[in-house]
Structures are given as C-alpha cells and as structure tokens.
Amino acid sequence: MLLVETETPIKTTLNTWISAPWTEFVAIADAPDSDKRKSYYYNHQMRFEDMSTGSDHAKVHMIIIMAVGLFAAMQGIPINGHDGCSYRKTGKTEFQPDASYYIGDNADAIAWGTRIIDLDIYPLPDLVIEISDTTFNDDLGTKRLQYEELGIKEYWIVNVQTMKIYAFAIAPDGGSHHIRQSLVLSGLKLEILEQALERSRQANQSAVTAWLMQQYGNTVS
Fold first, then answer.
1. Residue spans of beta strands (DSSP E) within the chain
2. What is the pLDDT of residues 138-158, one digit of tens each?
3. 217 φ/ψ angles, rounded to the nearest 5 degrees
4. Domains of the chain (ranges, CATH numbers)
5. What global pTM score does this model have?
6. Where is each Putative restriction endonuclease domain found (predicted)?
7. CA 184 to chain centre
8. Phi/psi of residue 203, nearest 5 degrees
C-alpha cells in the first residue's frame, strides 16, 4: 500500500485553518483514514474537523434532514439531499457540509455513482447546512465567506446549543443577507424548524414529525 507523507501532521490541523498548498491538502483529505474527518480548503488554507459523534449533534442533524425532506415532499418540491458529501473545485476549494441539497431544476443534477462532486463538472448545491455544536464561530465566519464567494444560493447554520438557525441568502455577486424564511424552499419558515428542534429535546422524532406535518399543513398553502 502506498503511504502518502505530508509536511503537516494531521493532529496539528484539526479545527484550525492553516496555510497549505492544494497538493498537501488533497494528500491528507484523500488518505485512507480520511473518512472520519470533514475537509475544507479555501483561500489557500486547509481545515479538517473530526466527524461529530455526540448525541445532541446527531439528533439535531436528523431532525433537520427529516424536516427539510418532509416539507419538500408535502409541497411537491423536487429535491435531492446529500449527507456529509464532499464538493471539490480542483486547485481552488473544497467543502464538506453536514447537509446539502439540490433543489428544483437541479434536483437530479448529480449522476449516480459520483463520489466527490467535481464542481468543474457539476453545479453548486442550492442549499448548504452546517450543524454547529463546537464550530459555530468558524461556521459563521470563514465558512460563510467561502460559501458567499462560491455563490451558493442559501446557507444555514444550526446552533446545537441554542437551537437557533442563522440563515443567509447569497446573491450572485457574493453578497448575503439574513433571512427568516427560505427562498430556495419557498414558504418554509425557519421559526417552525427552531420550534421543532426545541420539541426534540423532550419529544421523540415520531412526535416531532407529526407536529411538523400539522404545522406545514396549517401555514403553507
């Protein structure tokens, strides 16, 4: 087996942006043991994060994925989601958000069998979501700048500690503004998702799903 040596030990790069050439980043990101790390590259810097194994993070992640999928199904919105998928533009950028979605006309954009989504071939996802437990400052800071520069239409940060969602609509020129209702999932009020997250602290996911179905039916025509 070929072992790839890198200049920077992986333990020194976890949860920290450090300057590195693209080749060094790829050597670490594509190493055999990389499946338990999230990988990011932006502005000639790389960042790696351990995949969260905490119960709170995992439950919030599940609720968000379920809630988005349920809304899309009830409203007849074509959607395909990706859980922890890697997106790469060779030599320039890579990101691996907790969840991401292709919506509407883009729903079927990614061919079956694709591993890393090559952004030189495929379009950007319409919605990117970071489930933020210990990485909130970076999710709101550098990652937001990365997604703005790429021109992703919408970006959510879900704060596990406070159960609040910080969402941004991103314009083609890279500017962004705070939103409380999704634009790519028309009619989806983020307040409802926050209430569902609060309920999930005490109620099981079946009960939360039933509550969401009622809310979606009552508030969206």
1. 18-19, 37-42, 45-50, 79-83, 87-89, 93-95, 99-103, 117-118, 127-132, 154-159, 164-170, 176-179
2. 999 999 999 999 999 999 999
3. -70, -30
4. 55-219 (3.90.1570.10)
5. 0.91
6. 24-198
7. 15
8. -105, 155
